[in-house]
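BUG: 3D viewer hangs when loading the predicted structure for this chain

Environment: internal workstation, default settings.
Expected: structure renders.
Actual: progress bar stalls at 90%.

Input used:
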Amino acid sequence: MKNNISTVVFDLGMVLIPFDYNIMLNKLDKIEHGLGARYFKLYQENIDVYKKYEKWDLTDEEFCRINLNWLDNKISEEKFKIIWSDIFLKETKLTSLLPELKENYKLVLMSNTCHIHQKYGWEKYGFLKYFDKLILSHEVAAYKPMKEIYKSVENYTNEKPESHLYIDDVKEYVDAAVKLGWNVIHFIDEDDAYKKVKDFLEI
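C-alpha cells produced before the viewer hung:
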C-alpha cells in the first residue's frame, strides 16, 4: 500500500459514470413539445425537493407525486422513473483500474444519489462488483458535503482519515474530505484523474 492508503473512495456520477439530463429532457419533449424545459425549470427552482429525496426525507412515492405534478401527470409513475433515470452514459476509464485496486485496497463508493436512480439507472453497471461497500446518501440519510456521510465511510473502514484516498469531481466535496484529513484527487476529466490515481498509488 502506497502513501499509507488502505481505502480508495470513489464518487459515482461523472467520475465513474457520466450522465446527461438532456437525454431525459428530450424524451419528455417527445411526449409534448416544451415539456422538458418546463419540467426542468420547476425542478431547478425547487431543488430542495431532490435534496430531501436524496437523503430519504421523501419516499419514492412522495417524490414521484411532486414530479408528476410538475409534468401535469402526462405520464405514469413507472414511466417517470424510467425516463428520469435514463441519463447515465458509458463508464469512464477509471473503472478499468478497479480490478487491480481491489487486490490491495478496500474500495468504497460514496455517492449523493437516490433510490430511483439506483434501481432504474446505475445498479446495472458491472464494475460495481469490485466495491466492498456502497455508501449512498439515501441509505445513510446524509449527503456530501455533510460530515456524516464521510464518517459513514470511516465507520465502515475503521481506518484513520489519512488512510483514505477520495476521488470526486465536485470541488466542495473534495474540500470537505480534506478538512477531515483525507487524501483527495479532484476529478477534472477522466484522462487526468486516471493518471493521477495511478501516480498517487504507484500502479
